[in-house]
Amino acid sequence: QVVFALNQTLLQQESLRAGSFQIPYTTEDLIKHYNCGDLSSIIFNHDTSQVPNFINATLPAHERITAQEIDSYFRQELIYKRNERMGKRVKDLLEEYPAKSFFFAFGAGHFMGNNTVIDVLRREGYEVEHTPAGQAI
């Protein structure tokens, strides 16, 4: 699986470099949607947008199964579990120091797809509010 993942990542990067494959959104698109608090945008709605897309319709059936297994592993280990740990750390700090004020800043990857840090905190009963760029806190 590791060799397959590395090969697919390299093929994808070579396609990007050659211009035969394009990412459907730019970094500027990500920044614009993030700053506007538009986290439900199609850009932020892909669970696997942080990892290479290994699932390709042109793959043979046995390789497609491997790709789906790797994609599922990445989604679970690199996205869901990471966000769960980070959300719990925020919750623990808030509960341990209730008289203190906190400011938490996360990279955009922690807001993508399902089971985000915000989802974890809301499940724990917290209200999370977006602060737009340029707004005083």
UniProtKB/TrEMBL annotation:
Q: Where, subcellularly, is it found?
A: Cell membrane; Membrane
Q: Which GO terms describe its molecular function?
A: metal ion binding; metalloendopeptidase activity
Q: What is its EC number?
A: 3.4.-.-
Enumerate the UniProt keywords alphabetically: Cell membrane, Glycoprotein, Hydrolase, Membrane, Metal-binding, Metalloprotease, Protease, Signal, Transmembrane, Transmembrane helix, Wnt signaling pathway
User: What does the record say about its membrane topology?
Assistant: Single-pass type I membrane protein
Note on cofactor: Divalent metal cations. Mn(2+) or Co(2+).
What are the required cofactors? Answer: Mn(2+); Co(2+)
The cross-references to InterPro entries, in alphabetical order and at most eight, read: TIKI1/2-like, TraB/PrgY/GumN_fam
User: What are its GO cellular component terms?
Assistant: plasma membrane
Predominant location category: membrane
This protein's source sits in the domain of life called: Eukaryota
Which GO biological process annotations does it have?
Answer: negative regulation of Wnt signaling pathway; proteolysis; Wnt signaling pathway
Query: Which Pfam family is an annotated match for this chain, by its short name?
Result: TraB_PrgY_gumN
Cited function = Metalloprotease that acts as a negative regulator of the Wnt signaling pathway by mediating the cleavage of the N-terminal residues of a subset of Wnt proteins. Following cleavage, Wnt proteins become oxidized and form large disulfide-bond oligomers, leading to their inactivation.
Family under the similarity heading: Belongs to the TIKI family.
Q: What is the protein name for this chain?
A: Metalloprotease TIKI
Q: Which organism is it from?
A: Rhynochetos jubatus (kagu)
